[in-house]
């Protein structure tokens, strides 16, 4: 709005107006006006006290010009000289115009992070034009400045022909960080594809090149987080170049900043987790690449409703199922070609849950490569099952960790995961700072994992120690990062290593006044999981008590509370603390009906079913699993096929325990497709499922088939401690099968092995006791001497 | 969603695909939208807080475009045209109102200008401003365009600088001079 009438005018000693002495506007010529303008601009650059001098000088040879200028100055509104933004002087070219070795030429852009200037190198003998980004905001704290410098080094290492290079950077005198990037002259990738009328394959090939660049960055532990057509320029040579790599992260240092509302125009390319304010990972870039691919191929957004204006982008990104790519293409050869594999590739890249996407740009690019070459897709999602599928499946977890750890480390756009090959190296630099540690790890590339045992735990432990030492003053950061590392260790099966890390995480979070009850519950839940081994039982009890207390706090949301309570009850039940588990469940039951999501209730009732099964209480177990399945039925789309299959497998086990073979058979049939598909032979989860299938075969009279399946399962289970219960079940099944077949020696031998397993169990729970007793009775009956 | 919005989307797509003519067909729709929003603002709270100082013209276009898939030259054309159209609409309305005196017009001019957050000074006669701008166009077309984009397009100085690919400082000075010159002329 108008600055209003109250503004002081700048001219001195001037009456309000000079009606009798107007500017000669009627007979002004453009030339004369040009002179006036030139002098006016010059005057404005002068300090007010020097203007009179200058005016006097002008007046000596051109009195008319002087008079005109004086009247203009008299009419000048002081606010007209002010920058338009409340952010103050940052909007003008900075006073000095020289930043580092560069001279600012003009501003070429402004974004959420600050301003971008075209700048030229002023030192040295060569010409260089750069895009210089001057970060908005106040001075950096010393901590942040250090981090900024460190990450800048990381980005400077990103030398790739398809990535605009970070050339230089630093901090200005007034402590604003700046970055000089390679200046790219080109068209946006979308414009290029349109101008050049590229066909589908060439568009995919273009995105594939972008993927390679992004994968390269992921391999260097850098996540882009803001991939969109405007950030990808194609030069005259047809090569795409990505701008602003890692900049988004570099700039928003605190957690709050990552949660602020995205600029309106970026939402279209933002991943659901970015909109939700959750952590961003390599999978976030994959999502954006998926949108890019879709839009380049189809010329429109995958979100039809938002594109049509029927919903806003935020809603669409979070809730709308993307259009199938081929449905968005015009009928013709491109559409036929896209149908099938390319549809699946895009669908996978655009999955709402980061964990369901490609773990990184490399995997996404591999599939695009395969599609372009007409091969089976390496990810195995294609119509033809590829051989590499099982291998990639095996490494799925480490790849997911790559993503999960990105933000958890909280030190920037950094991906980290241990890699077996380099575990020694990592150990050797255990004392090293975070930079070096992170630099060692490059992980987003699946084939680097092939055939090797991932030994991330060494790395994660080292990272935890470093974090604790270096960031002790930042409990929020420590809490998050350690929590994530502990999570990783648990998933690696290293509960004992995870426990101290999570204890430290919990301590940090308790120290953090900003930590919500929900966040505390989430971390305590991880802690109780890490205490899932015999010696830790007393500590697990203490953790459970803390969870119970937190669940009662007013800001604890019921779904987090229920989740933590159920998890604690599950862990305690494994140690035989059924009363304590029942107590926690009593707290949970009160929450379980308060309009919680189907997912939360499903999980809770499944925990209850497990606990009842361990207690050999098949009535309670049947009731609980029925509720769990019913929650799944409410909104089947909320549950992955694997999760549904796991519930059916549990239902089968419970039905078997209850002697309901018919139901067991039905449940197994429902569970089998997804589980067999998910876990290749040799996988521990597969072996556990095979034991269940063997038990069913035995109940159904197929003793030979049962024995065979159970034996192979025993072999696959190996002698790991955490497989003891499954081994016991398998050996009991073998003993019973042999007994049924009349092979009494083999039966007794198997029973003896089962007994050894049983005796080693600490504690021995009713479920396993019952299994052994049943086997023992069957052998006794069939092979009585 | 209304028929109009679908139509707008279609025109936008055509325009984005290079059909310049569809922009002309598009703008009346955009201005309907603008009026609808302005009317909405006027119906609702009358305070100035309800609208961002960023001009609605800009917002409406950006919202309708849904994304920054418009390159600079097209964007320049778009905003320049939008500002011109806004100028035309406001001036036509002002003329009509002065003809009708306080006849059936739904809004006062000042209300509209205020509601859509244009930085035009209070008590400015729009027809006189229009005439002064024409005179300025004859003397310095770019300075006149800066005024047009600021006053009627609602763009910030920095945005104008970006759009016209001119140094921001230059735009500040031209803007200050133009306003001083207009003030002098309109007084």
Question: What characteristics describe this protein?
Answer:
heterodimer, A: 785 residues, mainly alpha, Phosphorylase Kinase, domain 1, Transferase(Phosphotransferase), domain 1, six-stranded antiparallel β-sheet, B: 187 residues, sigma factor activity (chain B)
Task: Set down the secondary structure blueprint.
The complex is a heterodimer of chains A (785) and B (187).
Chain A: H1 30-44, H2 48-61, H3 63-74, E1 98-99, E2 102-111, E3 114-121, E4 129-135, H4 142-156, E5 166-171, E6 177-182, E7 187-188, H5 189-195, H6 200-219, E8 232-234, E9 240-242, H7 247-251, H8 255-259, H9 272-275, H10 282-298, H11 304-307, H12 313-319, H13 325-328, H14 333-338, H15 341-349, H16 361-373, H17 388-394, H18 396-408, H19 423-428, H20 434-440, H21 456-470, H22 475-491, H23 495-511, H24 517-530, H25 537-551, H26 558-574, H27 578-591, H28 598-614, H29 618-634, H30 641-657, H31 661-678, H32 684-699, H33 703-717, H34 724-741, H35 744-760, H36 766-782
Antiparallel strand pairs in A: 1-2, 2-3, 3-4, 4-6, 5-6, 7-8, 8-9
Helix pairs in contact in A: 1-3, 2-3, 6-10, 6-16, 10-15, 15-16, 18-22, 21-22, 21-23, 22-23, 22-24, 23-24, 24-25, 24-26, 25-26, 26-27, 26-28, 28-29, 28-30, 29-30, 30-31, 30-32, 31-32, 32-33, 32-34, 33-34, 34-35, 34-36, 35-36
Chain B: H1 3-16, H2 21-43, H3 56-65, H4 72-100, H5 109-115, H6 126-139, H7 141-151, H8 157-164, H9 168-186
Helix pairs in contact in B: 1-2, 2-3, 4-7, 6-7, 6-9, 7-9, 8-9
Structural features, described:
The complex is a heterodimer of chains A (785) and B (187). In chain A, strands 1-2-3-4-6-5 form a 6-stranded antiparallel beta sheet, covered by helices on one side. A 3-stranded antiparallel beta sheet of chain A has the order 7-8-9. Chain A contains 36 helices and 9 strands. Chain A is mainly alpha-helical and 785 residues long. In chain A, a hairpin with a 5-residue loop joins strand 8 and strand 9 (240-242). With 187 residues, chain B is mainly alpha-helical. Chain B has one domain (3-186). Chain B is built from 9 helices and no strands. In chain B, helix 6 (126-139) crosses helix 9 (168-186). The relative contact order of chain B is 0.11. Residues 37-59, 62-73 and 102-111 of chain B have low confidence and may be disordered. The chains are: A mainly alpha (785), B mainly alpha (187). At the A-B interface, helix 1, helix 3, strand 2, strand 7 and helix 5 of A face helix 1, helix 3, helix 6, helix 8 and helix 9 of B.
């Amino acid at each position: 709005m108008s600055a209003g009438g109250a503004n002081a005018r700048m001219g001195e000693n001037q009456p309000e107006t000079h009606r009798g002495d107007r500017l000669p506007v009627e007979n002004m010529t453009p030339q004369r006006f040009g002179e006036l303008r030139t002098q006016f601009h010059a005057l404005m650059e002068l300090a007010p006290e020097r203007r009179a001098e200058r005016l006097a000088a002008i007046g000596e040879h051109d009195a008319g010009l002087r008079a005109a200028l004086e009247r203009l100055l008299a009419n000048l509104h002081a606010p007209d000289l002010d920058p338009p933004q409340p952010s103050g002087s940052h909007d003008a070219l900075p006073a000095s115009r020289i930043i580092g070795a560069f001279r600012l030429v003009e501003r070429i852009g402004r974004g959420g992070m600050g301003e971008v200037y075209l700048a030229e190198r002023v030192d040295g003998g060569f010409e260089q034009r750069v895009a210089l980004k001057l970060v908005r905001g106040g001075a950096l704290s010393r901590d942040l400045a250090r981090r900024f410098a460190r990450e800048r080094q990381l980005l400077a290492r990103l030398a790739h022909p398809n990535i605009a290079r970070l050339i230089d950077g630093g901090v200005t005198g007034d402590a604003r960080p700046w970055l000089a990037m390679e200046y790219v002259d080109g068209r946006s990738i979308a414009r290029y594809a349109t101008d050049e009328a590229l066909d589908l394959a060439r568009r995919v090939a273009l995105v594939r090149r972008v993927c390679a660049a992004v994968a390269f960055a992921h391999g260097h532990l850098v996540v882009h987080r803001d991939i969109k057509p405007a950030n990808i320029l194609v030069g005259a040579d047809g090569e795409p170049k990505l701008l602003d790599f890692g900049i988004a992260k570099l700039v928003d240092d605190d957690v709050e900043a990552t949660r602020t509302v995205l600029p309106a125009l970026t939402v279209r390319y933002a991943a659901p987790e970015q909109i939700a304010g959750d952590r961003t990972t390599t999978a976030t870039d994959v999502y954006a690449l998926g949108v890019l691919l879709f839009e380049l191929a189809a010329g429109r957004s995958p979100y039809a409703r938002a594109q049509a204006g029927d919903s806003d982008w935020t809603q669409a990104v979070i809730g709308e199922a993307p259009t199938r790519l081929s449905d968005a293409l015009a009928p013709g050869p491109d559409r036929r070609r896209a149908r099938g594999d390319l549809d699946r590739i895009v669908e996978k890249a655009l999955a709402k849950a980061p964990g369901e996407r490609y773990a990184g740009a490399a995997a996404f690019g591999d599939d695009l490569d395969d599609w372009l070459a007409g091969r089976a897709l390496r990810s195995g999602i294609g119509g033809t099952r590829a051989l590499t599928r099982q291998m990639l499946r095996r490494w799925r977890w480490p790849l997911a960790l790559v993503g999960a750890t990105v933000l958890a480390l909280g030190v920037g756009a950094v991906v980290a995961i241990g890699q077996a090959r380099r575990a020694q190296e990592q150990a050797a630099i255990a004392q090293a700072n975070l930079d070096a540690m992170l630099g060692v790890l490059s992980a987003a590339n699946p084939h680097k994992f092939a055939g090797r045992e991932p030994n991330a735990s060494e790395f994660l432990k080292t990272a935890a120690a470093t974090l604790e030492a270096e960031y002790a003053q930042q409990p929020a950061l420590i809490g998050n990062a350690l929590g994530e590392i502990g999570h990783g260790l648990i998933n690696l099966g290293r509960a004992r290593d995870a426990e101290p890390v999570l204890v430290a995480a919990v301590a940090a979070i308790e120290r953090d006044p900003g930590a919500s009850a929900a966040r505390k519950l989430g971390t305590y839940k991880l802690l109780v999981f890490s205490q899932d081994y015999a010696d830790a039982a007393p500590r697990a009890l203490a953790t459970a008590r803390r969870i119970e207390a937190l669940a009662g706090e007013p800001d604890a949301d019921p779904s987090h509370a229920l989740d933590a309570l159920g998890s604690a009850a599950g862990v305690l039940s494994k140690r035989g603390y059924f009363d304590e588990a029942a107590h926690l469940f009593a707290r949970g039951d009160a929450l379980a009906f308060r309009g919680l999501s189907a997912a939360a209730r499903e999980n809770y009732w499944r925990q209850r079913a497990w606990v009842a099964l361990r207690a050999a209480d098949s009535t309670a177990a049947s009731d609980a699993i029925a509720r769990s399945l019913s929650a799944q039925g409410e909104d089947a789309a909320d549950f992955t096929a694997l999760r549904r299959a796991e519930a059916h497998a549990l239902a089968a086990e419970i039905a078997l325990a209850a002697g309901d073979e018919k139901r067991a058979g039905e449940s197994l049939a429902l569970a089998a497709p997804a589980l067999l598909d998910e876990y290749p032979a040799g996988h521990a989860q597969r072996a556990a499922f095979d034991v269940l299938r063997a038990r069913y075969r035995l109940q159904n009279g197929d003793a030979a088939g049962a024995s065979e399946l159970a034996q192979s399962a025993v072999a696959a289970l190996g002698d790991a401690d955490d497989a003891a219960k499954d081994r016991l079940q398998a050996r009991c099944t073998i003993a019973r099968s042999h007994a049924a077949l009349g092979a009494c020696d083999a039966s007794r031998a198997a029973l003896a092995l089962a007994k050894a397993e049983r005796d080693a169990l600490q504690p021995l729970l009713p479920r396993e006791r019952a299994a052994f007793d049943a086997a023992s009775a069957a052998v006794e009956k069939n092979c009585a001497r | 969603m209304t028929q109009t919005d679908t139509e707008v989307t279609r025109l936008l797509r055509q325009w984005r695909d290079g059909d310049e003519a569809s922009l002309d067909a598009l703008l009346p729709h955009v201005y309907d939208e603008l009026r609808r929003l302005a009317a909405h603002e006027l119906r609702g709270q009358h305070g100035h807080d309800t609208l961002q100082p960023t001009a609605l013209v800009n917002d409406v276009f950006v919202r309708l475009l849904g994304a920054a898939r418009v390159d600079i030259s097209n964007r320049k054309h778009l905003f320049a045209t939008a500002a011109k159209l806004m100028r035309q609409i406001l001036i036509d309305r002002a003329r009509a109102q002065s003809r009708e005196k306080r006849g059936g017009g739904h809004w006062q001019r000042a209300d509209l200008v205020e509601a859509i957050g244009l930085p035009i000074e209070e008590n400015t006669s729009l027809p006189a401003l229009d005439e002064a701008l024409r005179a300025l166009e004859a003397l310095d077309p770019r300075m006149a365009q800066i005024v047009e984009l600021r006053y009627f397009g609602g763009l910030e100085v920095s945005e104008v600088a970006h759009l016209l690919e001119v140094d921001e400082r230059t735009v500040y000075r031209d803007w200050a001079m133009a306003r001083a010159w207009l003030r002098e002329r309109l007084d």
